[in-house]
């Protein structure tokens, strides 16, 4: 019988191993057995906890999503102005922890899974909706709601784009450079809108 209290530790080890294994081997090639070996647990235990590779990836993404939520809240805690709030959201999404190559690989695998699996589609929609809502709320303190939502949508698309470029190893996707470009885009968009008003 497994020791009580070991399940959370083993689940966490399997989630961390999933991130590493997807990055090193790719989602299509990696097996739940390889992930279990990386986590130093048996394949049977991995199946017992998660059922399948797809369910393990979903659990991994839920954990990454929770971590991102914590990062966003921490960054927002020090933000005072609407622009500082936008920057905080961008910085949280592109933070060192979220923008590590292996985490980016896991997100890209999840995007692929979301094309065909309803549970993954739901979680991805939740992620996009939360980011859009946070950005639109901050921008809505400076702009009319429709414009705030439009700039929030474009800002989210830029964040997604930098994830893709990071996965491809593009130098322009370095964290600080990406954050600076997105902040400049938002500042220009707000300024252009205010000029037209």
Structure report:
Residues 8-68 form the HTH tetR-type domain. Residues 31-50 bind DNA. It holds the Pfam family TetR_C_6. Keywords: DNA-binding, Repressor, Transcription, Transcription regulation. InterPro entries: BetI_C, DNA-bd_HTH_TetR-type_CS, Homeodomain-like_sf, HTH-type_TetR-like_transc_reg, HTH_TetR, Tet_transcr_reg_TetR-rel_C_sf, Tscrpt_rep_BetI. This protein folds into two domains: 1-51, Orthogonal Bundle (Arc Repressor Mutant, subunit A); 61-196, Tetracycline Repressor, domain 2. The radius of gyration is 19 Å and the shape is elongated. With 197 residues, the protein is mainly alpha-helical. The protein is built from nine helices and no strands. It has helices at 6-25, 32-39, 43-50, 53-77, 82-93, 101-113, 118-139, 145-167, 175-196.
CATH architecture term of the largest domain? Orthogonal Bundle
DSSP strand tally: 0
Largest sheet: none
In DSSP terms, counting alpha (H) and pi (I) runs of 4 or more, how many helices?
9
CATH topology of the largest domain, anyone? Tetracycline Repressor, domain 2
Key features of this structure:
single chain; Homeodomain-like_sf; HTH_TetR; transcription regulation; Tetracycline Repressor, domain 2; 197 residues; Arc Repressor Mutant, subunit A; mainly alpha
Topology:
Blueprint: H1 6-25, H2 32-39, H3 43-50, H4 53-77, H5 82-93, H6 101-113, H7 118-139, H8 145-167, H9 175-196
Helix pairs in contact: 1-2, 1-4, 1-6, 2-3, 4-5, 4-6, 4-7, 5-7, 5-9, 6-8, 7-8, 8-9
Provide a compact summary of the structure:
This protein is an all-alpha fold and 197 residues long.
């Amino acid at each position: 019988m497994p020791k009580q209290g070991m399940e959370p530790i083993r689940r966490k080890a399997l989630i961390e191993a999933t991130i590493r294994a997807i990055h090193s081997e790719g989602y299509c090639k990696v097996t739940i057995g390889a992930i279990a070996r990386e986590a130093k647990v048996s394949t049977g235990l991995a199946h017992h906890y998660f059922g399948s590779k797809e369910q393990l990836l979903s659990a991994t993404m839920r954990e990454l999503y929770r971590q991102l939520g914590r990062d966003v809240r921490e960054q927002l805690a020090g933000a005072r102005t609407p622009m500082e709030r936008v920057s905080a959201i961008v910085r949280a999404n592109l933070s060192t922890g979220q923008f590590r190559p292996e985490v980016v690989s896991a997100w890209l695998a999840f995007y692929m899974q979301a094309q065909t699996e309803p549970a993954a589609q739901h979680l991805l929609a939740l992620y996009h909706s939360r980011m859009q809502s946070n950005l639109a709320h901050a921008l809505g303190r400076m702009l009319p709601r429709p414009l705030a939502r439009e700039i929030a949508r474009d800002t989210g698309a830029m964040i997604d784009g930098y994830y893709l470029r990071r996965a491809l190893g593009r130098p322009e996707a370095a964290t600080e450079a990406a954050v600076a470009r997105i902040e400049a885009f938002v500042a220009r968009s707000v300024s252009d809108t205010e000029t037209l008003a």
